[in-house]
Design brief:
mainly alpha, 64 residues, two-stranded parallel ribbon, flat, 41% helix
Length: 64
C-alpha cells in the first residue's frame, strides 16, 4: 500500500496498492465515520486481493 506510487515502482515493489494521501494513507478525515470505515475496508480488501494474485512483474492494483 503506497501513497506515492512512483517511489514504490522505483524501488521495485511487486504489488502496489495506491492509497488516499500522504497524511492519511488509509483514511479520509473529511468523511463521516461510516463512509471512512467503508473506504478503509475497501483498501484493505484490495490489498488482500493483491496478495492472492499471481504477478510476474510490478503490478499497480488501481481499479475499483
Amino acid at each position: 500500500m503506497a501513497t506515492i506510487v512512483p517511489i514504490s515502482l522505483s524501488v521495485g515493489a511487486n504489488r502496489i496498492i495506491p492509497t488516499v494521501s500522504i497524511p492519511h494513507p488509509l483514511g479520509n478525515p473529511t468523511l463521516d465515520p461510516a463512509a471512512e470505515k467503508q473506504l478503509r475496508r475497501h483498501l484493505v480488501e484490495k490489498a488482500l486481493n493483491a496478495l492472492q494474485t499471481d504477478v510476474t512483474e510490478q503490478t499497480v492494483f488501481s481499479g475499483e
